[in-house]
Design goal:
It is found in: Cell envelope. This protein has about 950 residues and is of the alpha/beta class. The chain contains 24 helices and 34 strands.
Length: about 950
């Protein structure tokens, strides 16, 4: 009597394999097709990133390409900015308008274009376009995301976490996470944690909030926000005092034995002793003589000093001992500020050392180092770390991230079995990266790449008169080591005319009028502000997005992008590849479906615009387009001879890394599942910065043009150069109001400094956001499946604050900061730092955006903490504009927010409530339902 059910229905007529874009994980997916439409998405089991695993976001991609919020055609504003009043126009008219605005800028003042892109994955391409346009004002989203993590890692050890490297999941026995939410690299981390826990490895999570990865950790450390660096340096204190550090590793592979000028009266005070060739010098233990660090057979001495010309030179290791053995870093001295008992700090440090040294092991694998010494085995230290935005998005984030890298190095757990491993094209030293360029010539390209790694004051992006060359003030005395730029300061600085006015703001995939900006209300006012002449202070805004986001309403011209299954994308070794520690890998996306709207991939639009503007690299001598579209660029562009965006199937189709363009390259990728992999040889798998086999392999596939072995930089000499300038040395001097800050914060050894920015008393509570695992930035929040998981967001309060404020679940609270106020619903959470509140990020939406109904929960009960944050610090009374950023890199200090909490009468909806904006796509249907095929 049971009903007959078909347990194996026909799912699809065809499977097309490509790369997911529901987050930045870049998993491989099988897109099932029926009647030419997407019916089902699953993980690709052959893919090196996810090996078939797919999360809720990836599966919900089908709803992304059917979203009612998709833009349908180019738009020209016909009402006031912010009204959402547009008319649809043709692509030819849209590109004529854009060319008409941009061509005069390029001919006379290229810096009047500010071109900034959001969380796209084509930054090597967009930066190439901007460089050829000639504007110095280009960057991507890293400045308000995790530049502290990336820059600190590269300056210290040649790479950082996530896209730069990964734990050795096969051998690690203790895994420690700092400040990691659930939206980045989620599938590989979930798979890795599952693998190590299955064999009994221990996981320690350090985060004020216990969700996601921290919820499955064996130990959760609910640290006080912004004190991670202090906690890490205290563990370094404990380890050094106990002698539980890897001295051999420090001597061989780091600059701990490099000699430093110790005479305060010398102009070289604090700088390295070098030979005539510029190489750092050490004392050889065998001979007792000065020797270049890379001399064959040298055994660097961590203890020896050298005196010459009346100056004593001491090794970096001495400086470390002086600093970190100081009682200020003792657990008892930091416990109260960190919110971690001194005994627990000691216990965690002890456990790290126990696993690293007492559970060390050997791999029977021979390798030869850069000094020519052959080692019969590889020593494994099975402790690994991972960290992300949680420790990065503070004004002390750069030094905190550096401290974590130094902790790894002291334990000898970087690039060894069981530890942290780099992913190609990393590791590479900071000196192997370009330096930032800012020389503007009307009608010509910029003199080099916009972004890079400065080595001293001479590399700053300053005009001849000493003023900032860039609109965001990146690479200036305000933020010397910016690396990724300061996207969160672009609109504010452009509006203020500080350092100068711009003509056109050109943005891609950056929701700067809502969840991607600090001071949301203020930014909206800046975008709509008019001068005394009645014209907008920021005269023109061009914006590209696939969806009707809040930012669309503030554009004068909208260039509609495709969804990720409708276009070509290149996940390139020149940019943000999908490599694993054992392999170099890259990938593509390709149009598995054709758009049913009048939209174009943004990268192809840039190719067209570049040709119309006559940009070098995009237009031929006869004026014709160099590339028909982005797919043509991917295949035929060469950054260096034989090196292009894709490393696979080059030349005759068999060459990896280096080779001539192959016209069949994209087809080969498609046939291979959308990706390419070439494996690191076994002998080159570990010790990559110093392993001759790896260095030769990297040259062979085009990651670099010559071997580039280097020492880990525990002591970052470029930072000392900036300090020396602040002390009055050198031709380039900082302004007087920044001297003390540079001297205090730019220590060449990692330090910790307070970041309390309240400006006055009365804001005692830390406030944070986290991105939920089911969403990525704001894109997923209008996804019909995913918004059922997070349709609105409460503010989570710890038990203590709930009781002190007489709150219970479902009550509402007024939350106030030095900048603003919100009124929101609250829920109690016990697994939370007792003086911290938090909420999910980017859930709240503005009425009229994303094709949501006016009474959608995202627009009525959802909210943003952004209204409480400002891109500037509270005024100090000196008349200056102080960026709410890390003083070294300029990363937005999102997580330094402090607030007060008070119970209040429930309003009709979350406050502040903004007026609705008119949507160019209207609202979606009440019920989103369709059937594909029979």
């Amino acid at each position: 009597m049971q009903p007959v059910i078909d347990l194996s229905p026909k799912v699809s007529d065809e499977v097309r394999r490509t790369t997911c874009y529901m987050c930045a994980c870049r998993c491989g997916i099988n897109v099932h097709m029926k009647a030419g439409k997407v019916v089902y998405i699953e993980g690709n089991r052959d893919h090196p990133v996810n090996k078939g695993v797919l999360c809720a976001k990836g599966s919900a991609g089908i709803m992304q390409v059917n979203a009612p919020s998709r833009l349908r055609a180019p738009l020209k504003r016909v009402g006031p900015r912010g009204s959402g009043e547009f008319e649809e126009i043709s692509w030819d008219e849209a590109l004529q308008i854009a060319t008409g605005w941009l061509a005069p800028i390029r001919a006379k003042n290229p810096e009047k274009l500010a071109f900034f892109t959001g969380r796209d994955q084509s930054q090597s391409f967009t930066s190439y376009w901007a460089q050829n346009f000639g504007t110095p004002n280009y960057a991507a989203h890293g400045g308000f995301c995790s530049v502290n993590m990336a820059a600190a890692g590269i300056y210290t050890m040649g790479g950082a976490f996530w896209e730069f490297g990964q734990p050795d999941w096969d051998h690690t026995k203790l895994f420690m996470l700092f400040g990691v939410a659930e939206d980045h690299d989620s599938n590989p981390i979930k798979m890795g944690i599952g693998k190590i826990k299955a064999r009994g490895a221990r996981v320690i999570g350090v985060n004020p909030i216990r969700t996601g990865y921290n919820a499955v950790a064996d130990d959760w450390v609910g640290i006080t926000p912004g004190t991670d660096g202090l906690f890490i340096l205290s563990m370094i204190h404990v380890l050094m005092k106990a002698g539980r550090i890897d001295l051999d590793y420090l001597a061989r592979y780091t600059n701990a034995p490099v000699l430093v000028n110790g005479d305060p009266k010398s102009p070289e005070f604090g700088l390295f002793l070098r030979d005539d060739a510029g190489k750092e010098l050490v004392i050889d233990r065998a001979t007792g003589k000065l020797t270049p660090f890379d001399h064959p057979g040298v055994r660097p001495d961590l203890a020896a000093t050298h005196r010459a010309g009346g100056i004593t030179h001491r090794p970096v290791f001495h400086q470390m001992a002086d600093l970190y053995l100081d009682p200020q870093y003792a657990p008892e001295a930091v416990a109260e500020r960190c919110g971690i008992a001194a005994s627990r700090i000691r216990a965690i440090a002890s456990e790290l050392a126990r696993v690293a040294f007492d559970e060390a092991f050997e791999l029977d694998r021979e390798w030869t180092d850069f000094r020519g010494e052959t080692h019969k085995t590889m020593t494994g230290r099975p402790v690994s770390f991972h960290a992300m935005r949680g420790i990065s998005a503070h004004a002390n984030g750069f030094q905190t991230c550096r401290a974590l890298h130094v902790l790894q190095i002291l334990l000898g757990t970087v690039e060894v079995p069981g530890g942290f491993r780099f992913k190609p094209p990393y590791p590479k030293p900071a000196t192997a990266h370009p330096k930032p360029h800012c020389k503007v010539t009307p009608g010509a390209p910029l003199d080099g790449p916009h972004l890079g790694f400065v080595q001293g004051p001479e590399d700053l992006a300053l005009k001849d008169d000493g003023t900032p060359a860039r609109i965001d003030k990146a690479f200036t005395w305000d933020n010397p080591m910016s690396a990724h730029g300061l996207m969160h300061m672009v609109i504010s600085n452009a509006h203020a005319g500080d350092p100068y006015k711009i003509d056109t703001l050109f943005m891609y995939m950056a929701n700067m009028s809502w969840n991607s900006s600090m001071n949301t209300r203020g930014v909206i006012d800046m975008l709509t502000d008019r001068g005394d002449d009645g014209e907008y202070v920021i005269p023109r805004i061009i914006y590209s997005d696939a969806y009707s986001s809040e930012m669309v309403a503030y554009a004068d011209l909208v260039l509609p992008d495709t969804t990720y299954l409708e276009r070509h994308d290149c996940i390139s070794l020149l940019d943000r590849p999908i490599c694993e520690a054992d392999a170099a890998a890259d990938a593509i996306r390709w149009p598995v479906i054709e758009p049913d709207r009048d939209v174009r991939g943004f990268q192809s639009v840039l190719c067209d615009l570049g040709a119309r503007l006559g940009l070098p690299g995009f237009a031929n001598e006869d004026g014709s387009a160099t590339y028909a579209d982005y797919a043509d660029y991917i295949v035929n562009h060469q950054r260096r001879p034989g090196i292009g965006p894709l490393a696979g199937f080059r030349g005759d189709g068999t060459q990896a890394g280096r080779g001539d363009p192959n016209p069949d390259q994209l087809n080969r990728y498609i046939a291979n599942g959308g990706f390419f992999v070439t494996h690191v040889p076994d002998a080159a798998a570990y010790y990559k910065p110093w392993n001759t086999a790896y260095q030769d392999w990297a040259v062979g596939i085009g990651l670099c043009d010559k071997p580039q072995p280097y020492l880990f930089q525990i002591y970052v000499e470029p930072m000392r150069r900036f300090q020396r300038a602040a002390e009055g040395h050198g031709d380039r001097q900082p302004p007087d109001h920044l001297r003390d800050r540079i001297k205090a914060t730019m220590s060449p050894l990692p330090i910790w400094h307070e970041t309390d920015q309240t400006g006055n008393d009365g804001f005692p509570v830390h406030a944070l956001t986290q991105r939920p695992m089911a969403m990525y930035h704001s894109w997923g929040s209008q996804n019909a499946w995913l918004r059922q998981l997070h349709g609105h967001n409460p503010l989570y309060l710890p038990t203590r604050l709930m009781r002190e404020n007489d709150l219970k679940d479902g009550d509402w609270a007024r939350v106030t900061s030095p900048h603003g106020e919100i009124t929101v619903p609250v829920l109690e959470m016990t697994a939370l730092n007792e003086n911290t509140v938090w909420t999910w990020n980017a859930i709240g939406k503005r009425k009229g955006a994303w094709a949501l109904e006016p009474d959608a929960p995202e627009a009525t009960r959802g909210f943003l903490l952004n209204h409480l944050i400002h891109e500037l610090l509270p005024p100090k009374g000196d008349g200056l504009r102080w960026s709410n950023s890390d003083p070294i890199t300029g990363q937005a200090a999102w997580f330094d927010l402090k607030v007060s909490i008070a119970k209040t009468t429930p309003p009709q909806e979350s406050l502040p409530a903004f007026d609705p904006i008119k949507s160019p796509v209207g609202t979606g249907p009440k019920t989103l339902r369709w059937k594909v095929g029979p």
